[in-house]
Design goal:
alpha/beta, disordered N terminus, globular, 8 strands, 11 helices, 8-stranded parallel barrel, binds 1,3-dihydroxyacetonephosphate
Length: 266
């Protein structure tokens, strides 16, 4: 597929905190991150930054971002497919929207594996997110066994097709390609592998939602992203950012990832 429109996509560097940092720690962290990026004169219009703290931190992060007018986007790591009702332990998209969340991660491999989320759950959650004007960050990725058996693209392509099945063509979405074997392993995919899969995911978006949506949708790479490898991923035409786990918990490392354009040789 021809790569079109890549210059119209603002790169997005997103930090998935997973189950780390309580609400007090989140306040200190966000303040320090904001200072660090301000000191470095980071231009948020050039590279957007989003963080995904645990649910219990979201109100604190919202209050801080709003009071200090920080140019940081934030969102939750999951949501319920339901709006309200007898769903003990679940959090509705309506609640997240009230907290001014802009994004929500859906279908992370840890949810798929540890909480038995299927493609059908992921699709229902994507619909729920869009209903509440949250931008879903739809995660797809193959395991090491899938990689061996089917190569890198087959599973992510089929997961994304399923996730987009009920989506309106005007939808605003983000896709994150996270090979399961690369998450937390220190063994990132090669930039060429990430590009190859991202290009195929863009074709899936184009088939499901049309070329215009495909051209404007950010496709992130995730899995052992660090300050030392981000620039190589960002050189790839179909990779529009990163979903960062472990390294997003280290302010120096995360702000260096965000400022990848300043790295030597980019
Ligand atoms: P790591 O960056 O720790 O490999 O985690 C990636 C991830 O799962 C982000 O969602």
């Amino acid at each position: 597929m021809a790569v079109t429109g890549s210059t119209r996509r603002t790169p997005l560097i997103a930090g998935n905190w997973k189950m780390n940092l309580d609400h007090l720690q989140s306040i200190a962290f966000v303040q320090k991150l904001a200072w660090s990026l301000k000191d470095a004169r980071h231009d948020f219009d050039t590279v957007e930054v989003a963080i995904f703290p645990p649910y219990t931190d979201l109100r604190s992060v919202q209050t801080l971002v709003s009071a200090d007018k920080l140019p940081l986007a934030f969102g939750a790591q999951d949501l319920s497919e339901h709006d309200s009702g007898a769903f003990t332990g679940e959090i509705s998209g309506a609640f997240l929207a009230q907290l001014e969340c802009q994004y929500v991660i859906i279908g992370h491999s840890e949810r798929r594996t540890l909480h038995s989320e299927t493609d059908a759950h992921v699709a229902a959650k994507v619909t729920a997110a869009l209903k509440h004007n949250l931008v879903p960050v739809i995660c797809v990725g193959e395991t090491a066994a899938d990689l061996e058996e089917h190569g890198p693209s087959a599973v992510p392509v089929s997961q994304l097709r399923a996730a987009l099945a009920g989506v309106d063509t005007a939808a605003d979405i983000v896709v994150a390609y996270e090979p399961v074997w690369a998450i937390g392993s220190g063994q990132a995919a090669t930039p060429e592998q990430a590009e190859q899969v991202a290009a195929q995911l863009r074709v899936v978006i184009s088939e499901a939602l049309g070329q215009d949506v495909a051209d404007k949708t950010r496709i992130l790479y995730g899995g052992s992203v660090k300050a030392s490898n981000i620039a190589a991923f960002m050189r790839e035409p179909n990779v529009d950012g990163a979903l960062v786990g472990g390294a997003s918990l280290d302010i120096h490392e995360f702000s260096s990832i965000i400022r990848y354009q300043k790295h030597v040789g980019v």
